[in-house]
């Protein structure tokens, strides 16, 4: 075991110091191209009529490469990964190879698949966009909040220590309800919450060849006049929820949370974008439902597993 760990560490060092990938700790798979939500800040659902999905033979064909690269975790993303009828067979192949499986989900199908999730998925990250009313509005799915809450509670009722966390994209439509979002996560029984700003300029999220124009972008970006209010709200969150920063329930530090405001100020040309060191594809890479390989969601394809 020690020699295996040393070899992996050596490969990680070589990967980070050269242009060749010898170790790849994390792989993000998109088992299914469709989504069961119609979020206002994402266009993935607009491609639901052109379905693509990964097959068992695709995953089986990757296992030797993942083993050689020492992959430790696979994140099942989407769209909604649970829409793949063979999703749990894919998970079984990965688990048998000793790879940890994390599901990124809209949360609508957790209750239906509770037992299989507990058996074959190590942890779940759901998307939370607001309190009950606002979450449903942003997702464009009536009852989405309640379905997710019921699913979380069903899973946790069977296994109280099972880890389910959430992430929230903060943007123009929900930043004023930031405290309510945090309280909703606590009430739902989620074990951690993290925050990130909205992407409105890249070709990710099914916008390839159809990037948003400025009017569409500013449906999601806080306006210039709203930036002071956004800054004040960040200060309110830091002040009101101090204990949740201290115990790690809020994943970001107050300083990192402030960078969301900085990001949106930069979107208006008021400052430089916050520096963020990119580690793709030296730490992780993305394989889409049609086999396309990208360093991350936001960069051009580099090939295809087929």
SSE blueprint and pairings:
Elements: H1 2-17, E1 26-29, H2 56-68, E2 73-76, H3 87-96, E3 100-105, H4 114-120, E4 123-127, H5 132-139, H6 144-158, E5 164-170, H7 178-188, E6 193-197, H8 214-217, H9 227-240, H10 242-246, H11 254-267, E7 284-287, E8 292-294, E9 303-304
Parallel strand pairs: 1-2, 1-7, 2-3, 3-4, 4-5, 5-6
Antiparallel strand pairs: 7-8, 8-9
Helix pairs in contact: 2-3, 9-11
Task: Explain this structure.
The model has no long low-confidence stretch (mean pLDDT 92). With 306 residues, the chain is α/β, with parallel strands linked by helices. The protein has helices spanning 2-17, 56-68, 87-96, 114-120, 132-139, 144-158, 178-188, 214-217, 227-240, 242-246, 254-267; strands at 26-29, 73-76, 100-105, 123-127, 164-170, 193-197, 284-287, 292-294, 303-304. Helix 9 (227-240) packs antiparallel against helix 11 (254-267). A nine-stranded mixed β-sheet has the order 6-5-4-3-2-1-7-8-9. The protein is globular.
């Amino acid at each position: 075991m020690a020699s295996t760990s040393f070899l992996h560490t050596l490969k990680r060092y070589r990967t980070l110091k050269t242009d060749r990938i010898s170790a790849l700790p994390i792989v993000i798979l998109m088992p299914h191209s469709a989504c069961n939500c119609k979020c206002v800040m994402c266009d993935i659902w607009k491609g639901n009529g052109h379905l693509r999905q990964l097959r068992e033979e695709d995953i089986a064909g990757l296992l030797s490469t993942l083993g050689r690269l020492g992959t430790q975790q696979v994140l099942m993303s989407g769209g909604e990964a649970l829409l793949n009828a063979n999703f749990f067979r894919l998970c079984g192949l990965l688990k048998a190879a000793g790879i940890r499986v994390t599901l990124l989900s809209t949360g609508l199908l957790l209750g239906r698949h509770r037992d299989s999730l507990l058996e074959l998925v190590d942890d779940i990250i759901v998307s939370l966009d607001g309190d009950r009313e606002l979450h449903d509005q942003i997702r464009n799915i009536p009852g989405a909040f309640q379905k997710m809450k019921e699913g979380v509670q069903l899973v946790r009722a069977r296994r109280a220590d099972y880890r389910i966390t959430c992430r929230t994209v903060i943007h123009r439509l929900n930043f004023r309800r930031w405290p309510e979002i945090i309280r909703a996560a606590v009430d739902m029984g989620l074990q951690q919450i993290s925050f990130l700003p909205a992407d409105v300029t890249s070709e990710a999220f099914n916008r390839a060849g159809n990037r948003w124009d400025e009017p569409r972008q500013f449906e999601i970006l806080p306006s210039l006049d709203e930036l002071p209010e956004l800054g004040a709200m960040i200060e309110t969150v830091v002040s009101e929820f101090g204990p949740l920063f201290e115990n790690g329930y809020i994943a970001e530090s107050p300083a990192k949370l402030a960078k969301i405001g900085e990001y949106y100020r930069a979107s208006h040309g008021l400052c430089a974008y916050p520096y963020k060191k990119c580690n793709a594809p030296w730490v992780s890479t993305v394989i889409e439902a049609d086999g396309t390989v990208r360093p991350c969601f936001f960069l051009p394809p580099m090939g295809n597993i087929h």
